[in-house]
Amino acid sequence: MSRTAHHRGAKAASASLTVAPISAVEHLAFVRTQRSVSFLQTPAWASVKTEWRSESLGWFDGRQLVGVGLVLHRPVPRLQRFTLAYLPDGPIIDWTGEIDAWLDPLAAYLTAHGAFAIRLGPPVCTNTWSAAQVKEGIADPGSKRLTEMPGQSADPVGARVTSRLRAAGWLPQSPQDGFGVGHPQFRYEIPLAGKTEDDLLKGMNQQWRRNIKKAAKEGVEVTVGTDLKAFHDLYVHTAERDHFTPRPLRYFQTMFAALMAEDPERIKLYLARHRGDLVAATIMVRVGAHAWYSYGASSTDKREVRGSNACQWTMIRDSLAAGCDVYDLRGITPTLDAADPHVGLIQFKVGTGGQAVRYVGEWDLPLRPMVYRVFDLYMRRRGG
């Protein structure tokens, strides 16, 4: 199913669309009319990204609100009056329509309010690859990247959006490995619509099923909790082991406070314990019919009890019970090269069944080319 089906509630564009600021209340009310919206496009996300100035914008057909977007404004160093206007995983518009009719009034509004460029990430996929195809690609020494393989399906809307953005002067920002300064272009997702728990288990590989059974046999208990300090201690341990920079505890406290204030079911903390010891912890976010595995942590001790698999299976089951269409394991890189250190990420996620999905990716539209060049140079010098 096309990702764009999530946005059928966004009315098709007419030639008279206008863009204007809206309240957080209006923004959230529109989000609630949609089958699925990225949590990065909810008004609550503005309260999480405190280092950015934010605003909610609405598209109006006459007096009717037909689309919304959360814009995060990032100032340029030493040119504070200009901003990069960023709409992560957005905006929420009808991407099946004439996108110029939607994006032209956005560009006009943001130019008039000091933006030097717009960066957006259309929530539209272009290709999908089944778990079986990904496994075959990894096993084939001649296959190095997902993009070298024919997909299970290609979305004509994604191809059209890509073509129209390029024709209108937008510049693609997605790096070759799929990870950049923004959000990943390649993701791993488990379709849930029409499935049962048995269906989902059958779709997993033998190792995943074995690990889920092992966790249950060992007595691992997964609960939904509120102890963010316990999660963060384990997350810092995970960061030291796996060599990444952890976010501070206050970031997660802000994230939970903001998202739960918007909807008490929006974000949940899962804690897996074995005989009293915390062995794994994960964070899940849900908006409408879309659930995301957002953060994870695991102990080095007791890895054999498979707490991480137990957390994942509990989140998948809860997403299914909540009526979600998709459980989103977030970013992967498109590599299939067994010698690439990133291949382990896709191997772990492909074990869940599901599919690899390529999105349109993030695109920039320079509104003030001279300032954009200065910003681009600055970002290159600091490594993104």
Key features of this structure:
384 residues, alpha+beta, Aminopeptidase, seven-stranded mixed β-sheet, disordered N terminus
Helical/strand content category: alpha+beta
Which ranges are low-confidence, i.e. pLDDT below 50, for 5 or more consecutive residues?
A: 1-13
Mean pLDDT: 91
What is the CA-atom radius of gyration, in angstroms?
21 Å
Fraction of helical residues? 25-40%
CATH superfamily of the largest domain: Gcn5-related N-acetyltransferase (GNAT)
User: Strand share of the residues?
Assistant: 25-35%
So, CATH architecture of the largest domain? Answer: 3-Layer(aba) Sandwich
Biggest beta-sheet profile: 9 strands, mixed
CATH class of the largest domain equals Alpha Beta
Q: How far is the first residue's CA from the last residue's CA?
A: 34 Å
Q: What sort of overall outline do the alpha carbons produce when their principal axes are compared?
A: globular
Order of helices and strands: EHHEEEHEEHEHEEHHEHHEEEHEHEEH
Helix segment tally: 12
Q: How is the CATH topology of the largest domain named?
A: Aminopeptidase
Number of strands: 16
User: Biggest sheet: strands side by side, in what order?
Assistant: 7-6-15-9-14-13-12-11-10
